[in-house]
Specification:
The chain is an alpha/beta fold and 280 residues long. It has a 7-stranded parallel sheet with strand order 3-2-1-4-5-6-7, with helices on both faces. Helix 2 packs across helix 9, helix 4 packs parallel to helix 5 and helix 5 packs parallel to helix 6. The longest helix is centred in the middle third of the chain and has 28 residues. The structure holds nicotinamide-adenine-dinucleotide. Nicotinamide-adenine-dinucleotide binds next to helix 2, strand 2, helix 5 and helix 7.
C-alpha cells in the first residue's frame, strides 16, 4: 500500500522501523519497579535505549510499566533474581522480544537491618540470595548473550556498606562487600568477551528502602557525616549508572564509583566544624 503523503509503501516503512529498532541498545535493569532502578530505566529510555524491567513485585511492576507509556521500547518481566529458573526464563524472553542485550544493571536488593544477635539464618540467607546470588545468576545469564552481540557493560549496585562496617548490617553489608568483589571478579573474567563490569556504591538515597530503614535519628547522623549535607537523588545515581554503561566509559572496568556526597571520604570532625561555622 502506498502512503499518500510520503509516497513510500507501508511495507518499506515497517522494514525501516524494524531496522532502526534492531539497532537500539537494550538494557536489563533488575528491581526496576521503583527507586533507583526506575530512575535508571528513565535515564536509559531518555538516551534512546530500550529497557527490560525485572522486579519481584508484579503489581507494582505492571503499574510502573503502564505509567512509562512506552510499550515499544520497554518490556516488564516479573522475576525473582534469586531464582535461577526465573532468571533464565527472563533472559530468554528478553532475547526473544528485543534480540540483544547491551547492558545489565544488577540493582535489585533488599535490606534487613538487625543487630547481629537478632539476625536469623533466614534473614541472612534471603539477603545473600537477593543481593549476591541475584547478580551472579543475572550476570551468568546475560554474559553469553552480550558476547554474541559483540560485548556489553554491567553495573552492580553495591553500597557504602560494602566498604565500611556499620550497625545492623551484618547480612546487608556483607552481601554488598561480596558484590563489590564479584564486580572485580567479573571484570577480570569477562574483559576478554568485551564486557566491562563496574559498580556504583550509593550513599543514602531517599527511596522506599531508605524510608523503611532510616529513623529520624539515623537521618540526622547521615547529615552529620556527609560533606554535601544531604541525601542523594535517584536521578544522581541513574546518571552514574548510565555513564558506566555508555561508550564514554569504554576503558573503565573493575571499578566502584561512590555516589555519596563525600560520605565514604569522611572521617570524624565534620559536625564540630559545622557547629563552629568553620566548614568553608
Ligand atoms: N536507597 C539507599 O539509600 C541505598 C543506599 C545504598 C545502596 N542501595 C542499593 O540500591 C539498590 C536499589 O535500592 P532502592 O533504594 O531503589 O530500593 P527499593 O526498595 O526502593 O527498590 C528495590 C527494588 O528491587 C525489587 N526487588 C527486591 N527483591 C527483588 C528480587 N528478589 N528480585 C527482583 N526484584 C527485587 C523491589 O521490589 C524494588 O522494586 C539496592 O540494591 C540497594 O541495596 C540503596
Amino acid at each position: 500500500m502506498v502512503n499518500p503523503i510520503s509516497g513510500a509503501s507501508s511495507l518499506n516503512q515497517e522494514t525501516e522501523h524494524e531496522m532502526t529498532t534492531e539497532k537500539q541498545k537494550v538494557a536489563v535493569i533488575t528491581g526496576a519497579a521503583r527507586g533507583i532502578g526506575l530512575a535508571a530505566t528513565k535515564r536509559f529510555l531518555a538516551e534512546g535505549w530500550r529497557v527490560v524491567l525485572l522486579d519481584i513485585e508484579g503489581e507494582l511492576l505492571a503499574q510502573t510499566h503502564k505509567a512509562l507509556a512506552a510499550p515499544d521500547t520497554t518490556l516488564a518481566i516479573h522475576c525473582d533474581v534469586s531464582n535461577a529458573d526465573a532468571v533464565a526464563a527472563a533472559f530468554k524472553q528478553t532475547i526473544d522480544h528485543f534480540g540483544r542485550i547491551d547492558a545489565l544493571v544488577n540493582n535489585a536488593g533488599i535490606a534487613i537491618f538487625k543487630p547481629l544477635l537478632e539476625t536469623t539464618q533466614d534473614d541472612w540467607n534471603r539477603v545473600l540470595a537477593v543481593n549476591l546470588t541475584g547478580p551472579f545468576l543475572c550476570t551468568q545469564a546475560a554474559a553469553p548473550l552480550m558476547r554474541d552481540n559483540g560485548g556489553g557493560a554491567i553495573v552492580n549496585i553495591t553500597s557504602i556498606s560494602a566498604l565500611r562496617a556499620s550497625t545492623l548490617r551484618t547480612a546487608y553489608g556483607t552481601s554488598k562487600a561480596g558484590l563489590a568483589h564479584l564486580t572485580k571478579q567479573f571484570a577480570v573474567e569477562l574483559g576478554g568477551l568485551g564486557i566491562r563490569v563496574n559498580a556504583v556504591a550509593p550513599g543514602p538515597v531517599d527511596t522506599a528502602m531508605a524510608k523503611a530503614v532510616h529513623t529520624p535519628a539515623i537521618r540526622a547522623d547521615y547529615h552529620d557525616t556527609i560533606p554535601l549535607n544531604r541525601y542523594g537523588l535517584e536521578e544522581e545515581l541513574a546518571e552514574a549508572i548510565f555513564f558506566l554503561c555508555s561508550e564514554r566509559a569504554s576503558y573503565i572496568t573493575g571499578q566502584m564509583l561512590c555516589v555519596d556526597g563525600g560520605f565514604e571520604a569522611t572521617g570524624i570532625g565534620l559536625p564540630t566544624l559545622r557547629r563552629e561555622g568553620r566548614n568553608g
